[in-house]
Write a structure and sequence with these properties.
The protein is α+β, with helices and mostly antiparallel strands. The protein has ten helices and 16 strands. Strands 1, 2, 3, 4 and 16 form a five-stranded antiparallel sheet that branches. The chain has a five-stranded antiparallel sheet with strand order 12-9-8-7-15. The protein has a two-stranded parallel ribbon with strand order 5-6.
Amino acid sequence: MQNIRPAGMPPRNTLLPFYRRRYMSLLCLLLFLSVYMMGLLERELRAYSDQSGNYYYQLTGIQKQIYGYLKDLRYNDAPLDLTFLASGISCTTSGDLTEEDRAMLTKNIQEDLQISVDAFLKDYPDCFWLDVRESKCQYQFKGNLSSGNKIVWYVSSVIYHFEIEASYQANVAAVEAELKQAIQDFPISGKSRYEILRSIHDGLARTVSYRETGQRAHDAVGALLDGEAVCEGYAKAFKLLCDRYNIPCVLGMGLAYAEETGEDGEPHMWNYVRMEDGKWYGVDVTWDDQQWGIYYDYFLVGSQTEAISFGGIPFGQSHRFDGDFSGTKLKVFTYPELSLTAYDPSVTPTPTETSSFSATPSVSPTPTPSGSVGPTSTSGFVSGTIPIPSGDPAITPTYTVDGTPPVSFSPPPSRKEAQSVIFWTAGGIFAAAALFAAVIWVYKRKR
């Protein structure tokens, strides 16, 4: 009995080429999708790679895990206590714990906690409400009876009690919401990264006045909501606005050079920004915001760029960076290496690498006035510390943090991790396509 072939099916002797063409078309389509997804992943992960300059990447594994818990607390309606488990540190005694024993058991934990907080507050200046100076740690100790009537003591849990800055205690959630809205509503124009940064620079200079007396002058809240800030407020607001467009930006702190005395002056804060050429440049909106107008002596400059309007002092000399954020000497963070020269938008191509946005009409910047003037004096800022017990420095016990960070915590991947994600995703798509084609091929051959 002759088989009746369905309508539209090619003759039997042409089936193999027919299916081959379909296999190849499907395989090419899947290969195209894999390459397309690689491009999308690269674009999305680029802003979150270790090239972002975040201080998170300078932490140890345990410190990163503590940082993760801190980051998760930002998404709650109100500040909460941070509780985590620590295991691995123990001491053996004949009775109760002495003060020296407690100091030994908690020393490393508190040091790691301090370092994690230092990095976290520089990476997330929108966590303005945390008062490190008043926040305290509470430890729970447990002991197990061992041989020889000895007791092995260890830290069973750590509770970090968050304290809220006095000026925000009544309305943390409301101020957080206002700050987020202010960041979104801040008028920024431009298509290239250079244009966006200049728009942020000029916008802050136009809308913020330098005031040391403002209650919230040391935070981005003072700059974006009150219109009054010191160097800290300017720099933190600049970073948060850069974060809005995924532009790599970090806070820099240290001492400002005093031209009058030729010595390091008061504590100061500014920014480092990474451009598309892969180099980092300095930005100091505080010193560019003068009563005579907006200056650009400290906008996207290199370490050897001289501030012509301010005595010709190179940026690397006027800004003496200090990586000991809390003054505890527990860790000295490193800053991105600055370009030697200023960024030149006319030479370096500036295709935007940021997410899409609706540009607002550009406002012409105030012309740079001529003449030699000095930057406005800046007030110092306070970086709180967590009290560290004075244990025996020769004892350096190690420990681990038990458990995993809360589900909402997703730290930015490193460049190696980003490349791994891209590789395995694309490889998975290609492997699936090859397997599918092989199965169909075997099936048809058996027929």
